[in-house]
Design goal:
The protein is of the alpha+beta class and 75 residues long. It has one domain. Helices cover 40% and strands 36% of the residues. The chain contains one helix and three strands. The protein has a three-stranded antiparallel β-sheet, with no helix packed on it. A hairpin with a 2-residue loop joins strand 2 and strand 3.
């Protein structure tokens, strides 16, 4: 398959939908994620959203670093 989806049914988010897309290129495989989520707790969730967004960006940056370490990158 060229993509798969993680969907949270029960957990910390009111909704979590994570699409993982893969495209073959002359240089290798391009990975592209689309994450859609809704935080719980109404306006309180809105208040902490910047912190959650920064943490998620950090998690995905870490994943990118580890993938590059494991598989390398073509420049």
């Amino acid at each position: 398959p060229n993509f798969f989806v993680d969907e949270q049914r029960v957990g910390p988010y009111n909704m979590w939908h994570h699409q993982h897309h893969f495209t073959e290129t002359p240089e290798g495989i391009l990975m592209h994620d689309i994450v859609t989520y809704i935080l719980p707790f109404g306006f309180l969730g809105d208040l902490v959203h910047p912190l959650v967004k920064n943490k998620l960006n950090s998690i995905f940056d870490y994943r990118t670093t580890k993938i590059e370490q494991l598989f390398g990158t073509k420049k």
